Amino acid sequence: MKKLILPLAALAFMASCNNAPKNEASDSNATTETSAATANEGIGVIKFEDAAFDFGSIKEGEVVKHDFIFTNTGNAPVILAQVSASCGCTTPKYTSEPVLPGKEGVITVEFNSENQVGQQQKIITVASNAESNIMTVQLKGTVNPKS
């Protein structure tokens, strides 16, 4: 009988030891999840009304102007750090003040079609502190040669 009690006591002790790390792991996971949730608080999110604008067909030399309007759907201000175009014929101007949650910002793009005959696709890259910190919008269409 004594031979059975010692192994059973050892087994019970080991079983109780195994429960402690599982509880600590569960507590650790809960802490990690809480930390992750806290880390995600305070992030701005850019949502464009339209991420592409097709200006259709124009004659060479015409200037196309379009406003890319976006809303900050996050819960922290969005700051546009840099907005650049893929070509010197395209000039972006943008909101320089922080865009508060729920508010709108704008990126105005001008495309000068001089010497840009044919199908056109101009990419505008937007760098910000938002959740997706690098985004793109595009301007596209066809430029017909001067008559």
From TrEMBL:
**InterPro entries registered for this protein in UniProt:** DUF1573, Ig-like_fold
**Which top-rank group of organisms is this from?**
Bacteria
- What UniProt keywords are attached to this protein's entry? Signal
Which Pfam families does this entry report, sorted A to Z?
DUF1573 (PF07610)
| UniProt signal peptide | 1-19
Q: What is this protein called?
A: DUF1573 domain-containing protein
Q: Which species? A: Sphingobacterium tenebrionis
Q: What is the lineage of its organism?
A: Bacteria, Pseudomonadati, Bacteroidota, Sphingobacteriia, Sphingobacteriales
